[in-house]
Amino acid sequence: MGLSARAQRASAAERTAGAAGRGPARAARSVGGRWGRRIASLLMLASLVLLLGSCSGRGDGRTVVKFWAMGFEGEMVARLIPEFERQNPDIRVQVQQLPITSAHEKLLTAFAGDSLPDVCAIGNTWVSEFALLDALEPLDRRIAATPGLRAQDYFAGAWDTGVIDGRAYAVPWYVETRLPYYRRDLLEHAGIARPPQTWDEWKTAMAAIKREVGPDRYAVLFPLNEPEPLLNLGIQADEPLLRDGGRYGNFRSPGFKRALAFYREAFAQQWAPLASNTQIANVWNEFGRGYFSFYVNGPWNIAEFKRRLPADLQDKWMTMPLPGEHGPGASVAGGASFVLFRGSPRQDAAWKLIAYLSEPATQMRFHGLTGNLPPRRESWNAPALVGDPYARAFRDQLERARPAPKVPEWERIAMEIKLVGEQLANGRLTVDQAAAELDRRADRILEKRRWMLDQADQRAAKSASPAAAPGEGG
């Protein structure tokens, strides 16, 4: 319930209390004397009972599960709750919608104040942070005891986002990744017979489109205010983005430097404009008028392109898997996952809610409400997804999606990727300089993590060393 709704209820309660108080007072004056005061007391007591009954009508003996969810999804998931409560009449779910911009701060504040909910849907990159805080309940035992919830049915990258040091702390709710939307007609005009699958094919296609469209239009949009385009190229490398257990950046690895070189070439050859999303008034209109032919973005834009592009362009765009160095490439597994908080006294009831929202049929209802993609392969057998040609590339891409590095500092490092990527695109840094700068910035952000891990290693080594034999020493 939102603050405004609580305020409305409080205001209504105050008006009811005021009316209840005025009635007995008038009765006392009309009757008078001792009997009048007794009658007035009885009337006031009856009014109080009615008032308390109206305020506590939800105290019906059911277990109340507090569920926090972010943004639009938090609004839509409330429509799925009545069926869960019908199937579980002893449980009532209290959904609280969190604004996306303040959700992380609110969760940390609730953790500090020991007021976390029972269950929450959090961004996949937050799982490691709350696991480090020891705020999350490990889920392996519950997963194993829930026959309908099979880890092997989930896309591996999506499932792995919730696994920290070999233990599962989260169950994916919905999954997203980035891949190119493209103009089929413009590729055909440029002589490109099929969507590119490798970086070399993609470069050939972009060069051909640029020759076709001229100096005032481009082949691809890599928005400079987003880290995802460069990050999705970089995660295709064989080497990890961080090294030594997440202690240091690994952006000077050969694989990531090749990704930086590909990204830099797209701007140097003027295949991509030096622009952010905010500098383009309407990306859908610009895509429709051919300002760019490839646009790397997430699954929510399927609905946007269907809605915003004119009818005569609806058969001229499509989605494709993200090209890689030597074939279809990997991408970052994003989305949100369910977690149980360790301090919850209602974990059994909260787990039933997670299991229900994870059922393929429920996931498909949620997809119909939001357009978010389900993380389970079985859910993709539903006609709504099987028959959607724009979703097929995402189904293929999700098989190669990989989790971002599982360190609490990752989102800060991703912002540095965006900033350094912008300098690289503008020619202010070379590839080698950009790689070194990313390592420098990441190492600075990870400094506290290194200290904590080193301290833990020293304690473990000390506890593992054999005790001094009796009589040894001074």
From TrEMBL:
- List, as start-end ranges, the regions of compositional bias called Low complexity: 461-474
From the Swiss-Prot or TrEMBL record, state where the protein is found.
Periplasm
| UniProt KW Ribonucleoprotein keyword | no
The lineage is: Bacteria, Pseudomonadati, Pseudomonadota, Gammaproteobacteria, Lysobacterales
Keyword check for Transport, yes or no: yes
SUPFAM superfamilies cross-referenced by the UniProt entry: Periplasmic binding protein-like II
State the similarity comment.
Belongs to the bacterial solute-binding protein 1 family.
What name appears for this protein in its UniProt entry?
Answer: Bacterial extracellular solute-binding protein
Tell me the keywords, alphabetical order.
Signal, Transport
Top-rank taxon, per record: Bacteria
Sequence segments annotated as region (Disordered):
455-474
**Cellular component GO terms, alphabetical:** periplasmic space
Species for this entry: Lysobacter enzymogenes
